[in-house]
Amino acid sequence: MGPVSGKNVFITGCGTGIGRAIAKRLAKDGATLILTDKNETSVNSVLQEVQEISKTSVAYQMDVTDGASIEGVLKKVLSKFSHIDILVNNAGVSTENWFWKLTEEEWDFNMDINCKGVWRVSKYIAPHMIERKQGKIICTASMASKMGAPFQAHYAASKFGVLGLVQSMAKELAPYGITVNAVCPGMVKTGMQDREVQWEAELRGIADPENVRQEYIKSTPLGRLCMPEDVANVVAFLASPDSDFMTGQGINVTGGICMH
């Protein structure tokens, strides 16, 4: 028996990185997982991993930018499990550029997945939680939801939006016994970071992208990169009964870079 035994947890963007780590941690803690990702191959790979300990978990291909895709998956989920106890809005993307060189396509790509995707999935699932008068919604925001950074104006704007959305949803859903919180990771060692150090090195004229990664480490008071499991541990806390009296919060997992 774990802290979320018997709970049905719906996770978006869990094919790789932070989402994969969240899925593995919550499976270990006893949850039945509804895994979703735009990449069907990746999400099925994660399903194979978690089914070793969470045999009733399932996986679906789903696009958080497509309402019909979300509705279709939700219909299947509710017919199989009847309800969703916890929603983890984790799907996210990034690109990097000087703000004055950003295209509208870059801007919209980040906004539509990172911010609007959180609203879109929550919009479809929250009414079912409201009907039952219980539930938890956990969103992956970012350190960039509290402090901007060069080359990430559009990304930071999308993540600031996530935190504002979390606080607003928390106030609206509190009367129904539903909590809404966010986790705000710092410099996380994932495939996304591998792309970001390449982009930043090019934008700054740095020959070796690993020098950029070393700057990330030097800027972190605890002296190392954030690992996906560090984030998953905090999500596990927010999913557990231990966080029942917390709502509207954005919890930093930054190794001390952001302290507010």
Describe this structure in words.
This protein has 260 residues and is of the alpha/beta class. Helix content is 48%, strand content 14%. The chain is built from eight helices and seven strands. Strands 3-2-1-4-5-6-7 form a seven-stranded parallel beta sheet, sandwiched between helices. Helix 5 links the parallel strand 5 and strand 6. The longest helix is centred in the middle third of the chain and has 29 residues, at 104-132. The radius of gyration is 18 Å and the shape is globular. The chain starts with 7 loop residues before the first strand and ends in a 7-residue tail after the last strand. The model has no long low-confidence stretch (mean pLDDT 97).
Radius of gyration: 18 Å
Strand tally: 7
The mean pLDDT is: 97
Tally of helical segments: 8
Give the termini distance in whole angstroms. Answer: 35 Å
Helix/strand class: alpha/beta
Q: Summarize the helix and strand pattern as letters.
A: EHEHEHEHEHEHHHE
Main sheet: which strands, in order across? Answer: 3-2-1-4-5-6-7
The low-pLDDT segments are none
Shape: globular
Q: What is the percent of helical residues?
A: 40-55%
